[in-house]
Amino acid sequence: MGQLLRVQNFNVSRDGFGAGEDQSLERPFGHADPGAMFAWAGATASWPMRTDPGGSRGLDDYFTRDYARGIGAEIMGRNKFGPQRGPWENLDWRGWWGDEPPFRTPVFVMTHHPRPSFTLSDTTFHFVDDDPAAVLERAKEAAGGKDVRLGGGAATIREFLDAGLVDTLHVAVSQVELGCGSRLWKSPDELLDRYHLDVVPSPSGVTHHLFWRR
Fold first, then answer.
1. CATH of the domain at 171
2. Where are the extended beta strands (E) located within the chain?
3. Is residue 206 part of a domain?
4. C-alpha 151: how far from its chain's center?
5. Which domain range does residue 199 map to?
6. How far is the C-alpha of 138 from the C-alpha of 133, rounded, in Å?
7. Tens of pLDDT along 196-211?
8. What pLDDT is recorded for position 50?
9. Which spans of this chain does the record mark as coiled coil (predicted)?
10. Taking the CB of residue 193, how many other CB atoms lie within 10 A of it?
């Protein structure tokens, strides 16, 4: 099938929002509570930030464990990288993840205000001002034959969907309502003209939506 552009483990509320409003340094997801949104993943044995032994196995753990499989590069929107807007006031901000980002691949951050690339541990961040197709081409080249993960946020995923570039999507729908924010969809049915869909409920309460191209 060649290299794929994959959305994996992207979380939305049951009313279709991937994040709330009023993002800030203290609240990366705005008024949304990430603990409630991502509880299903944080409870798994394979959760990468787990510090205690144990955790659940089964369906949710399968998706958490599969997150990095076959991925050679990531694309994300600027709001996933940080809360700043407009021109960079300084270059001290290097993402939410500290000195050991979880990506371990090249990461392409889409922004209208590029800045120099930098490397933290085994992750290199590149800042690109280009259309989705051109950014995907760069990411595929950097991925060295592996797939590219589209990490979000919702507006960035929607941009790539509307450009017809996404091959597969895994969206986890949590039983949380946000009412407003950054919306992925009003209903997953919006994508059924282009994608097949399997819907798989989990005992954790989250519902996994798996899309692949028709």
1. 3.40.430.10
2. 5-12, 17-19, 71-77, 106-110, 118-120, 123-128, 147-152, 168-173, 182-183, 195-201, 207-213
3. yes
4. 2
5. 5-20+31-85+94-213
6. 9
7. 999 999 999 999 999 9
8. 82
9. none
10. 7
With the C-alpha atoms ordered 187, 189, 191, 193, is the resulting torsion angle positive or negative? negative
26 within a domain of the structure (yes/no): no
Give the whole-number percent of the chain exceeding pLDDT 90: 87
**Count of domains forming the chain:** 1
In a domain, residue 43? The reply is: yes
Within-domain flag for 120: yes
Alpha-carbon distance of 108 to 142, in angstroms, equals: 10
The pTM of this model reads 0.94
Residues sharing a CB contact under 8 Å with residue 105, sequence separation 6 or more, in sequence order = 71, 72, 73, 74, 123, 142, 143
* Token pair listed for 67: 């997150």
